[in-house]
Amino acid sequence: MKVSSELWKEQLKEQIRPDWAKEIEDFETTIALRTQNKVEEKLFAETRLRRGVYGQRYDNGLRHDGIAQKTLNFEEKPGKGPGTVWDAPGMQRIKVPYGGLTPEQMEVIADLTEEYSDGIAHVTTRQDFQLHYIHLEDTPSLHRRLAAVGITVREACGNSVRNVTACPYSGVCPDEKFDITPYAHALTYFLLGHPDVQDFGRKFKPAFSGCKNHACGLTNMHDLGLIATSRIVDGKEKQGFEIYVGGGLGAVPHQAKLLSDFVPLEELLPLTQSIARVFARLGEKQNRNRARLKFLIKDLGIEKFKELVLEERQKLPHDPRWTEMIQEIQSFQESAKRPGGDLKNIPDDADFKRWLETNIRPQRQSGYVTVTIALPLGDITPNQLRELANIVRKYTKDTIRTSVEQNMVLRWISKTDLWDLYQDLKKSQLSQSEAGHIMDIVACPATDTCKLGVASSRGLAGELRKQLAEKAFHMDEAIKDLHIKVSGCFNSCGQQHLADLGFYGVGRKVGNYMVPHFQVVLGGQWENNGGSYGLPIVAIPSKNIPAVVDRISEKYLKERNKQESFQDFIKRIGKLEVKKSLEDLSKAPSFEEDPSFYNDWGDPRVYTTGDIGIGECAGEVVNLIDFDLADAEREVFEAQVLLDEGKSQEAGNKAYWAMLHAAKGLVKTQFLDVKEEAEEIIQEFRKRFYDTELFFDPFAKGKFAQYLFETHQKANQSFNSENAHHTIEEAQLFIEAVHACNLRMSQQINQKK
Amino acid sequence: MELEHLNLKIPISNPEQLKPELWNPAFQTWIQDQVCEELLIDVADYLHVPQGPGMMLIGLEADYSLDHTDGRWGLKYNRKKTLTGDNEKRLKDAFKKTLSACERLVKDKNLKGLQFNLKEIEILINDRALAPNTAENRQNFKKELHRLLTKVLINADHEGVFEEDPKKRLGVKIKFKENIQLK
Lengths: 753, 183
Ligand code: SF4
What we know:
Number of strands of chain A: 24
Low-confidence stretches of chain B: none
Oligomer: heterodimer
Structural class of chain B: alpha+beta
Mean pLDDT of chain A: 91
Structural class of chain A: alpha+beta
Bound molecules: iron/sulfur cluster
């Protein structure tokens, strides 16, 4: 811990809101009490999570160093959560409501990054900042320094209302209905610490969008999506919101459902409060895998949910803050610092011209534009942040926004300033072009720091950036416009379901080794606020993914119809065709032929826990299960093709049987004579793998088995396109879990030998 | 003035031959062998960030990195955990750790040809509350460093250029007449 924590406490005491200061002090006391074992471990974990203090990879005190799994010799102390070592470094998430920052706040984040973390501030896909490798006992100082410039980390993680996100162009976008910034601000501070949002079974993510057709707000994938709209009432235009609920990516993505097509502004806060109350009262609390709002809505149906919300609304005691915020709107009106105008005499500089093409967007205010600062993998250094703070001061009235594409956006830039601004950004190495284009890849932290990462999404994204940059000069514009998004596991923090080309990490056993793979996800739509979700079509070894990008994009270029979009092209040729074209890339060479396939990108360690020797007896059953798993994967893919053809019923049934066949494969490792009957497969699987917890994953526990059991319970259900889509996702995840279970069993056999 | 949380950076004298990605496997072997007194945890690769922290070996008490801040490659030692003892002990300890890290890297067969410029070093205090970068503190730091370097190094003749931007950390770039050698 830094020696200066008392100094900060003293220095900043007059600069922090008293209620925030008290919260930080309480947290500091709780840390002290935990060191004396006076606070229960799980409770402490939730307490720190609610202050954005998150666990990080290896914080269980174990790390595979490429040769063997080793214990990291941290001092023995009470844990900071179940299986979490006190001194192991962790992550601090900094909530940035609607991504809005001032230069002063940027400078503080820069200072904290230097003094407490590894020297990189990371912008997330929900407009937050994350700092890594932070020591728990330093976090109260961080919180104080942030609070002194108006940032609270309260409810940045945990089962709470997460950062309220919003399009970074709000207030200046030519397509918006109105500026949603004041409403995002109001909702943030209305819900922060509100008693009605303290008893959720899981997190709750709100998002605002100024229009329906662009992707900036991604309202479709949020628990609460709010889209600015208007209607004519008594001959006058009245502003309000279209409200969507129950969206989410995660393991099985759900599109949000329309709750109301028009909610007047003054009803925004009370209606949200009612939604929160219903979620807190009826949402699942025990089984966290079914605790998001999307599951409650799925169970109740949107109509019933709406009825309950409206009933709740009637009962709510009046709160003056519901309308007070509308009076504060004027204080959020941003304006220009410098006179607008046109960029005349564009200098003959190819990089500048390209930057103008890709990083500049028109504003609805003439003479002004927005400028996107493309951050490589969302990373920025403290020096860059400080220099950018000065740029913000020079060209704007002290505002900048982070974006869900892990970039930063300057607004109200006079076109006359573009060349000077470009020069200033260039000095700080922040003038990279290609914002929102194929090279501007979104990636979650994954194996770099995330405890759940299966494969290195940042390593892959870094490699793709490098390779694509080399080809950029000759690249066709149609390819440059594609979006790539990568997650390190199925949890979708990298939003791969919304990309043209999405990838998420999975592990596969090849011979006696594990090989990092990525599922290729196709069919997602970034536009229309994340209008449709893609599905995984095939797992490819990580080292072959750059070739996958090349092959699919070349195919698109060669075979597309005139003006055909990428999504339409994929739809027309079908996923089967794409899958076939990738077949040769789906196999990893043997370790002897090419050992590089057995390391992850940017990580020279052998990917597995070393040789997984298999005895002859085990070898036979392991081979059998490999066949069964291959069959199951084929079936789940066929289910997708059926779904694309509009045959929802057959698709759902096929996915259900894919799950059964994967389960059967696992059962056969213990009981070869299991019959091809659903009931028997379920019974045997439950007895041998679920009740014994053999199937349980260390993090997800029995979650994926529940997918199988629930689908089986509804075996005679009729499938529509939505529930068939979900069943396919669940089948894919169940099969992944069978792969993982098979691997764990092999490892255990190996350890026993 | 307490010299806690010291950062030392020794520049690489032949950066044109540097292959930064090879530092990853080098640091991984340090973790495998736990070569330092400090607990070594993980490697973080930030080579994609221009003038960033480069390739980092994250430890519990200290980090080591192939740092590229300010566009200059060098080995950086960042002491995170507080050290008991006086300033002399702290500075000597930081020098010792930094120099032995340089030595280990130079001996690494995979980094063949790597050379450090041992006539230069950058020293800063990574804590703005403890050591705000004010004119007064720069004077105090200058005096204290002069006193300590004479005690810690065999030949401490040097010239220093202090960081004057108050928003940056209190620090100095030092040039010695001779290669740095601990007493
Ligand atoms: S998608 Fe998975 S690996 Fe990536 S950050 Fe989320 S949980 Fe971690």
